[in-house]
Amino acid sequence: MEGSVNLKIENGVADIEFFHPQSNSLPGALLRKLAATIEDAGKSSDAKVIVIKSSGEKSFCAGASFDELVAINDFETGKNFFSGFAMVINAIRKAPKFVLVRVQGKAVGGGVGIACAADYTVAHESSSVKLSELAVGIGPFVVGPAVERKVGTGAFTQLTVNATEWQSAAWAKEKGMYASIHSSIEELDAEVNNLAQKLSRSNPEAMLMLNKVFWQGTENWDTLLIERAEMSGKLVLSDFTKKAIEKFKAKA
């Protein structure tokens, strides 16, 4: 698997860090590894809170791997690829512990989905966001429920329709995607670490009950997000989408 996902549990905090050399993009194998690692952290008795981050300082997550997208030639392969995003979002949703996400740079597509699926997300002031899926002939179907749940229908629609325009970290904070934004990586890390340590000493039973309250009404997501993956899996096979992805890759 190109890229990596690493888990470290220390002082009650499960620290999950993912990396991919192409701006922390997410190929299918990495998505499945990330989902499995979140599940493992949720099951660990040593972990009281989960923190998800990516490596480096420039990009939090560039979303789907274009190399993998353009290589999809049948519906099942497409469905399986997009199901990886469903697995990550559902792993966060079903984690029996609070999930914090640290966003240190730009977030695109699936990266926006991860930021929105978290219970609490903090970001650097450079962490602008974009849902670029429509620009390459598909749509943010799988991440959509997580994004809409966090920022509301109006903001989700704005991100989806204006698919080529970045929205600033300040915009994301105003819409509720980010709880706070910080002017330096040091401040960002201090905020994440301080909150994680506080939560590691909080009542785990109370946090579990609160988690159930937070996610009430999403019990159908196991099936809903797979249905959404099927939509994307169908669209990615079209000539329109394949040409759009190739054109997008050429500009990158």
Which properties best describe this structure?
252 residues, 6-stranded mixed beta sheet, 3-stranded parallel beta sheet, 50% helix
Task: Describe the protein in words.
- The strands form 2 sheets. A 6-stranded mixed sheet has the order 1-2-3-5-7-9, with helices on both faces.
- With 252 residues, the protein is of the alpha/beta class.
- Helix 1 (28-43) packs parallel to helix 3 (75-94), helix 3 packs antiparallel against helix 10 and helix 4 crosses helix 5 (144-151).
- The longest helix has 20 residues, at 75-94.
- It has a single domain, classed as 2-enoyl-CoA Hydratase, Chain A, domain 1 (Alpha-Beta Complex), CATH 3.90.226.
- It has helices at residues 28-43, 66-70, 75-94, 110-117, 144-151, 153-161, 169-174, 185-200, 204-214, 221-235, 239-251; strands at 4-10, 13-19, 49-54, 59-61, 99-103, 106-108, 120-124, 129-130, 180-182.
- Helices cover 50% and strands 16% of the residues.
- The chain contains 11 helices and 9 strands.
